[in-house]
Structures are given as C-alpha cells and as structure tokens.
Amino acid sequence: MGFASIMKIFLPKDRVFYGLFEEVSNNLTQMSDIFNKAVVEKDVTARNTLLKSLEEWEHKNDEVTHKIFIELGRNFITPFDREDIHYLATSLDDVADYLWGASKRVMNYGIDDLDEITLEFAQIIAKSITALNKAIHGLRDMKDLRSLTEACVLINSLENEGDDTLDKGMMQLFSSNINPVEIIKKKDLYQMLEIVTDKCEDAANVIESIIIKYV
Amino acid sequence: MGFASIMKIFLPKDRVFYGLFEEVSNNLTQMSDIFNKAVVEKDVTARNTLLKSLEEWEHKNDEVTHKIFIELGRNFITPFDREDIHYLATSLDDVADYLWGASKRVMNYGIDDLDEITLEFAQIIAKSITALNKAIHGLRDMKDLRSLTEACVLINSLENEGDDTLDKGMMQLFSSNINPVEIIKKKDLYQMLEIVTDKCEDAANVIESIIIKYV
Amino acid sequence: MGFASIMKIFLPKDRVFYGLFEEVSNNLTQMSDIFNKAVVEKDVTARNTLLKSLEEWEHKNDEVTHKIFIELGRNFITPFDREDIHYLATSLDDVADYLWGASKRVMNYGIDDLDEITLEFAQIIAKSITALNKAIHGLRDMKDLRSLTEACVLINSLENEGDDTLDKGMMQLFSSNINPVEIIKKKDLYQMLEIVTDKCEDAANVIESIIIKYV
C-alpha cells in the first residue's frame, strides 16, 4: 500500500471539495488568460485558435463540476452548507459557460474588429476571476478572512463596472450609424460578457455567506 | 367507504409526489407531441390551431406544479430532499413555459416559414422530453438505475445538440441576406427553443443528484 | 443603559428579518411610485431626473439586502426556512435591479416617446408591488392569512398580464414600420419590465410557500 493510498484513508472525506473548487477556479483563470490573449491578438486566425481552445477548457470544467455534484450526493458531511456548495459550483460553471459562449459568438458572428468595450470586459473579467481564484484558495484554511472578504467586495464592484461597460457599449452602438445586424451581434456579445461578471458576483456572494457563517 | 378511500388512508403521504411529477412529465410529452405535429404542418391555420392548444396544457401544468409546492409545504416527510423537489418542479414548469413561449412567438411574429433549425429543435426537444418522461417514471421504484442514469446522460448530450443548433441557426441568419427584423424574430424563437433544452437538462441534473443520494 | 438597548436585548434576534424585509418592500414601493410618475411626465428633462433618482434607491436596497444575508449567516434561528429567506431577498433585490435597469434603458437609449405598452407595464408593476408590500407586512403577525394569500394570487395574475402586455408590445413593434434599431431598443425595455413582474411573482411564490408551512 503506497503512501498516497494511506493518505487517502486519513484524508477527511469532506476535504475533497476544497481541491475540486480549486481545480475549477484554476481552470477559470486559464480561460480568462487565454481570452485576454485572444482579444488583443490582431491576427484573426491566431485569435480564433486561442478562442477555439476555450471549448476544451469548458469541457474540462464541466467534468470537475460534475464531480462536485457526485461528491455532494455521496458525502453526508460537507465543509460548508450543502446549498452553498451547490450554488458555488453552479455559479462557477456558469462563468465558464458564458465565457465560452462569448468566445463562440466572436468566432461565429465573425466579429473581427474587437472594440474597446470587449477589451474592457476582458480586463474586468480577468480582475474578477483573479480575485475569485484567490478567495477560493482562501477557503481551505480560512486564515486570512480580511483578504477573503476584500476579494468578494472587489468582485462586487467589478460587476458594477461590467454593468457600466454594458451601458456604455449599448449607447455607443445606438449613437453610431452601425447597421442593425451589427448591433444585434455586438449586443449579444456584450450581454454574454456582462453575464460572466454577474456569475463571478454570484460566486463571491456565496463565498461571503460561507465566511459569515464561519466567524 | 370505497376501496379507493381505504387505499388513500394507507398510501404513505409522501408518495403523492411521484404521481404529481408523472402527471407533469405526461403533460410535457403531450405538449412536445403537439409541437412536433405543428412544426411539420404546412397549413398555417391548422398549425396555429395546434400551437394555440398548447396554452391550455401549459395552464394545466401550472396547476399540477402548484399542487407540488402545496404538498411540499404540507409534508414533513418527502421521498427525496425538499430542495430537489423544488428544483425539479421549477425546471419542469420552465420546460412547459418556454415551449409555450416559443409557440406564441411563431404565431405572434407570424413566422410562417418554419425553417430547418426550428424542425431540428422540435426533434431534439421531443427526444429530451421522452427521456425525461422515462426518468421521472423510473423514480418511483428506483429499480433500473442504469437506464435512469442513461436517460439523464442523453438529456445532457441533447442540450449540447441544442446549443449547436442555436449556433448554426444564428450563423445562417447572419450569413443570409435576411432583413434585420426577421433576424430579431427568429433569434428570439431559437433562443426560446434552446432554453427548453436547458431546462430539460436542469431537470435531468436534479434527477441525477437524487439517484446519487439513493445509491 | 437606555430603553432602546434594553429592548434590543429582549428582542428575539430572528425578528430582525421582518423589519429588513419591510424596509426592502417600502423601498420598492417608493421606486414604483417614482417610476410611475416618470412615465407620465411629458417633460423629458424632468422625467430623466425622476428616473435618475432610482439609482440611489437601488443602492439603498442593495445595502438592506446585504444586511439580510449577513443576518442569515449570523442567526441560527430564523422566523421561516433559511432557503425561503434567501429566495425572498434575492427576488426582491431583482425587482429593484430590473426596475432600475429599465429606467436606465429609457434614458440611455433616448426612448423619449414612452408608449402605451410602457405605461401599461408601469401600472401592472405598481399594482404588483403594492400587493407585495401588503403581503410582506402581513408576514410579521400572520393574522390575516386570507388577505396574504389573495395578495399572492393577485401578483400571479398580474404576471400573466405582464406576459400579455409583452406579447402585445412585440406584435405592435413588428406590425408597424418602425426601423429595426428602434425595435431592438424597445424590445430590450419591454423585456426588462416584464422581468420585473416575473420577479414579483417569484417573491409572491416564496411568501405563499411560507404561509403553507405555517398553517
């Protein structure tokens, strides 16, 4: 019997959730990095290769999320409330889904001129996912509650920035003489990106409620 | 005192949920059958008569869903977790709502030329609701867990097909020279139909989590 | 030690929720009043001043909602089920968000000619929020269960009216010779307003389930 197997016996079953959530938030960080590389890439072919690669990450993330739900069904004891685990897993899965959804739209709709609004969203999403990743890794030991809370507050304010960016984007679309079909395409893209920030906020709110119960 | 009344006394109160969920999933099957008949009907008047009839089914379904929530409030003991009953009822209700929503749009927007994309969605929805119906009827005795799980896996893969159909549909709309107003109408219809497959998946995920807790 | 401090000691901790929910529903009533004043205001500058003032109310509401979640984390004993408090707070917060979202769209999109559909929505929302406010104030003593239930039933039927208004609005947009960009703007506005009625219904459904468990 190897060391790993012995460890597995002594590892409290409920600690498996920390590792799974960390895996998800690492995946999201990768996805956000790739998305941010893609939106500043001028060469459309190279950009689409980057965007296309997000599909695989999204699938990978689906599998980890599925594992979380299976563990949730199996484990009677969980490190935090069952419904918090459920909400957190669902919100994080949605972050991946909508980021991939936005990427697909860029490719499928042939939106080759990625505008300032899209770049702004990419940066907001990067900041939000960085804070989310930090918060999720902080759940394991719950040592630095102040920085955990600060990360959640930051994600909330980034969601407000996302709202403002969407408003600005829509006003620009309507004030310019862009043809209606282009408006439909970009509106769809902007909305997807704004939902990414919403779902990050949903996840942060769950984390905040976990912290409140802990203290 | 008749046999039925005697049975009612001995029938464990929590078993009422099986019958109610089966009623809902039978309703959904009827709705999907009617919708599939409607989309291949060439005569617009006959088609609209079929589509219009879905409103009554949707109302019928609302009432059963309402009964589930009332029983959920009344019964202290439930056959599966309370939040699972809540989620399952909500998802199934949404399936009916969005299918009726899509049907209304076909009529209200005067989308008389139902295209290949709509037919494809109708077939995906039919397969998904057939699998859902099977899974829900399997909950009562939990005998054939393998086929229950297979139904849920199928519904998940049909939701992916629905995603692809939406992508294909949107690309066709944008690549053709359709006028923007037609794009707005069809985009709305396609999105409603895609949400039907999403809600079937939500229901399947709840069923899967019920199975996991059972084994 | 003042009287207030003494009272605080004797006030059962879980009763704090009633006051917070009442604060939220009072805020929503204010928001709905302002919105209804705005939509009948002919002077665009005066109208936008009214609409703009909703932002502050929305922020105020966010803070009370946040307090509810903090109390939910802190209090082991709650007056009704924890998940009901969570759902109710979320739905009410969404009512404020979407009403402010609709108001922003009127301003940002420069929709200066507020049509009959928008006025109709404003009135439906006013009736729905009035009923909601009444229901929420009724939760504290649970004395008049009949009028509590009637308020919830009314909100449900107002949501159906909202659906019909949206259908009518969309048919008018498509049947007129409005240009596509105007259709996109108004569709977005109508949908936001319809979601307000949906979220009122979500809140009413939670209240109904609280009543069912109580009787």
Helix content of chain A: over 70%
- CATH architecture assignment of chain A: Up-down Bundle
- Tell me, what's the shape of chain A? elongated
The helix-and-strand class of chain A reads mainly alpha
CATH homology superfamily of chain A:
Phosphate transport system protein phou homolog 2, domain 2
Cα gyration radius of chain A (Å): 19 Å
CATH class of chain A: Mainly Alpha
Characterize the quaternary organization of these chains.
Answer: homotrimer
Number of helices of chain A: 7
Biggest interface between protein chains, with counts per chain?
A: A-B, 16 and 15 residues
Provide the low-confidence segments of chain A as ranges.
none
Overall mean pLDDT score of chain A?
92
What features would you describe in this structure?
Three copies of one chain form a homotrimer. Helices cover 84% and strands 0% of the residues of chain A. With 215 residues, chain A is an all-alpha fold. The longest helix of chain A has 35 residues, at 180-214. Chain A is elongated and about 60 Å long. Chains in contact: A-B, A-C, B-C. The A-B interface holds A 69-70, 72-74, 83, 86, 104, 108-110, 179-181, 184-185 and B 83, 167, 170-171, 174, 180, 183-184, 187, 205, 208-209, 211-213.
